[in-house]
Specification:
heterodimer, A: 459 residues, alpha+beta, D-Maltodextrin-Binding Protein, domain 2, 2 domains, 20 helices, 44% helix, B: mainly alpha, MetI-like fold
Chain lengths: 459, 321
């Protein structure tokens, strides 16, 4: 769901959908007809879910000494992180002559439409990166295979990571993902705007009362300080952070029921809508407008992904700072996501390739401090506390968030239910429905979707 | 007079010919003895593509719509007509969303088709006159059409942004072009008209150049003024083209998707989520391909009925004249 591409807005909509938008022009729809659409992506072979593409007989990735192989590696790092991963892959290819990695970078959009079809026709890559909440869906849909053995061969265990990032890589008791990074929401502040208003730009607000009083002060100087987006980027991420801060959660413990209509959840959305009602945010903030306004000194605060750090570094129009999102509710909490390595199911498994893939995952995992330069927090605690990472001033300032970051729950088909939450945020922030009404309606639908998915993918 | 014009509009551009094909097919065959094999051989290249990429998937789609279908899962339970029944059962998972999105598509089609039928006709009539720079202007009007929906969507999102957009800046207003009703429809229809009017104008132009000059000369001799010439020579001469333009524009509008995805993302709430948008979300986002296929068929049948009505209306008009 996340993109690391600042402001390439096509990448910021639902991955599957924007691929379709790009691929199908109006007239091509005409040719295909409405009916053709659902068929376009169909066909292909099957094998039972949950079975590894090859037996776990290799070394698990500690080393690879077999014959020369070429691996195919897919990911969606289209932003500045693409350059970083290219560099890492080149280093790998130079260091390990008997394994050649060929990388394909797709828009996340194209990635998630291409991948299942490619895998089921035997043309899938050997290794890929995907988000933590995509793992259960792809595991349930038999696109990726378990890699418990890699984790054990690499000696990885839960205590090496924050629990959420470690547990998120599993599905039905099996490990499918090796965590690479964490990318949480952060708060950016425009130092120029704060300076001009006579507010200390080196001491940004960290709690509710400070935050609200700074916004009131800014309003007194004709600046709407905190533009609230009604869209997934960044409104829904902001809302989910608040939801956890106010003590609510999007779903119940078993993820069988949507709970984002709870009193805490409503309170969180009321606070967000209150920003608009009190004039701290304009009405009708368009897609990306919150961030565009931030970069043009029209507002002071923007809650946005850690991945925007490099985009802001690349400009010299504004002076800015970045830090953890302030604590508005009764506890700390922030939305985040995580990139994880996965191994793809092969119709004709090749044990050498499987072993080489595991070695590659292992090797890149060691390089996660270098990967962090693309605007990420390393998933591994030891790397996150390394001098290399501490040297990345901006990214390191967000490291505390790793302790209380929440990921979307790791349940197959969770994206379908989250869409309902995004719609509720949209309706409420745009003033089309009260927070209570919007959340109740959406939660009812989301619960129905969760129930359907339970039936489809099995509990 | 009108009838004469009608019979003369023969060798227009390919799409026009396509529009007339059905009528021609029913005309009695004359000339050489027919050798069916030869005809089929000539048809073969297209026929193979048509069967392989249109007919076969369409039939397969019916099969899909009768299952709880996900192409990567080994177990695809047969559900019979349940996917269709759900669409007509209030309270089912898809009922409210599906019909809301059908409504959104209906609004868009109802608003955009009249604009896309009338405006391009006016432009085509203007561009059909002889004036310096005519070719330039023809190109200018067609130009937006060559752009992809992603380009158009992004371009208009920045132009029309309620708070940081160029349009509101120039107007000194704060109109919620991309976030509130009814403005979202104005934006979506406006940008689509700007984007695709060149296509329809080009079809009209092809039709216009095919109307014989003599008819206008004769009309002038009879004392018809410009307006009368337009109503009695131009419009009847364009009738087959008009059927084509109306039908294809309705189908294209009913399949609108990219614009709403990029410009409004369905906002406010899901008000501007079109039916293709919903089908795509359910079929390719939630992998509910059975339900999505059923929705596609309901939409396809609705469009089929609409197309039949249009053909009927135009045929009745023709019979009257």
């Amino acid at each position: 769901m996340t993109t690391t591409t600042p402001l390439t807005s096509t990448a910021r909509v639902d991955p599957q959908l924007s691929a379709i938008a790009a691929g199908f022009s109006r007239r091509r729809f005409l040719v295909l007809g409405g009916a053709g659409l659902a068929l376009a992506a169909c066909g292909g072979g099957n094998s039972p879910a949950g079975q590894p593409g090859a037996p776990d007989t290799g070394s698990g990735g500690a080393d690879y000494t077999g014959p020369a192989v070429t691996l195919s590696f897919w990911n969606g790092f289209t932003g500045g992180d693409g350059d970083v991963i290219k560099k890492i892959v080149n280093e790998f290819n130079a260091a390990k002559p008997n394994v050649k990695v060929e990388m394909n970078i797709y828009q996340w959009a194209d990635f998630f439409t291409k991948l299942p079809a490619a895998v089921s026709t035997g043309k899938g890559p050997d290794v890929a990166c995907m988000h933590i909440d995509d793992i259960p869906t792809n595991a349930a849909r038999n696109v990726i295979v378990p890699i418990d053995q890699v984790a054990s061969a690499l000696g990885l265990q839960e205590s090496d990571f924050s629990p959420a990032v470690w547990q998120g890589g599993t599905y039905k008791g099996q490990r499918f993902g090796i965590p690479l990074d964490i990318h949480p929401l952060a708060m950016y502040w425009n130092k120029d705007v704060l300076d001009k208003a006579g507010i200390d730009a080196e001491k940004p607000p960290t709690n509710r009362s400070d935050y609200e009083s700074v916004l009131a002060e800014l309003k007194g100087k004709d600046t709407q300080g905190f533009w609230v987006s009604p869209f997934q980027f960044t409104g829904a991420f902001t809302y989910m952070s608040l939801l956890w801060q106010f003590g609510g959660d999007a779903f119940d413990a078993g993820v069988t029921k949507a709970t984002f209509d709870s009193p805490q959840a409503v309170e969180a959305l009321q606070w967000m809508v209150g920003m608009v009602d009190q004039g701290y945010s304009p009405k009708n903030v368009g897609q990306d407008a919150d961030y565009i306004a931030f970069k043009n000194s029209k507002n002071a605060f923007n809650w946005n992904g850690i991945w925007q750090i490099n985009d802001l570094k690349a400009q010299n129009k504004i002076n800015w700072g970045v830090g953890p999102v302030p604590q508005i509710g009764s506890q700390q909490g922030v939305w985040g996501n995580s990139h994880q390595f996965v191994q793809l199911r092969q119709t004709k498994p090749d044990q050498n390739k499987v072993d080489a893939t595991r070695y590659f995952i292992n090797w890149v995992s060691q390089k996660s401090a270098e990967w962090a330069t693309s605007g990420k927090i390393p998933a591994k605690k030891s790397v996150a506390e390394s001098p290399e990472f501490k040297a990345l001033k901006e990214e390191y300032s967000l490291a505390p968030e790793a302790a209380y970051v929440h990921f979307p729950p790791a349940v197959a088909g969770i994206g379908d239910a989250l869409t309902e939450l995004y719609n509720a945020v949209n309706s409420a922030v745009l003033g089309k429905a009260s927070p209570q009404q919007a959340l109740s309606d959406s939660a009812k639908r989301a619960t129905q979707i969760l129930q359907d998915n339970l039936k489809k993918y099995g509990a | 007079m009108a009838v004469t014009a009608e019979t003369r509009v023969g060798g227009a551009a390919a799409p026009v010919a396509a529009a007339r094909r059905s009528r021609r097919a029913s005309a009695p065959r004359t000339g050489r003895r027919s050798r069916p094999l030869t005809a089929y051989l000539f048809l073969a290249p297209y026929l193979i593509l048509f069967l392989g990429f249109i007919v076969a998937p369409a039939v397969f789609g019916i099969w899909i719509s009768l299952h709880d279908y996900d192409f990567v899962l080994p177990f695809k339970p047969w559900v019979g007509l349940a996917n269709y029944v759900d669409l007509f059962t209030p309270g089912s998972r898809d009922f409210a969303d599906f019909w809301q999105s059908m409504g959104a598509t209906g609004i868009f089609t109802g608003l955009s088709v009249p604009c896309l039928v009338v405006l391009p006709l006016g432009i085509a009539v203007l561009l059909n006159r002889k004036f310096p720079g005519r070719t330039f202007f023809r190109a200018v009007f067609f130009l937006p059409y060559v752009l992809g929906v992603a380009v158009i969507g992004l371009l208009f999102r920045y132009l029309l942004d309620p708070n940081v957009g160029v349009v509101n800046y120039l107007l000194g207003s704060s109109i919620p072009w991309t976030t509130d009703l009814p403005w979202v429809w104005v934006s979506l229809v406006g940008m689509t008209v700007w984007w695709t009017l060149g296509f329809n104008a080009t079809i009209y132009l092809a039709g216009l150049t095919d109307i014989p000059r003599e008819l206008y000369e004769a009309a002038e001799m009879d004392g018809a003024n410009r307006g009368q010439q337009f109503w009695n020579v131009t419009l009847p001469g364009l009738r087959p083209v008009l059927v084509f333009v109306v039908t294809t524009t309705i189908l294209a509008s009913a399949n609108m998707f990219g614009q709403q995805l990029l410009l409004t993302h369905g906002a406010p709430g899901t008000s501007t989520r079109t039916v293709i948008g919903y089908i795509a979300t359910e079929g390719l986002g939630s992998f509910r391909m059975g339900a999505a296929a059923a929705m596609s068929y309901v939409l396809a049948v609705a469009l089929l009925i609409l197309s039949l009505i249009i053909f009927r209306v135009f045929r009745d008009r023709q019979d009257e004249s």
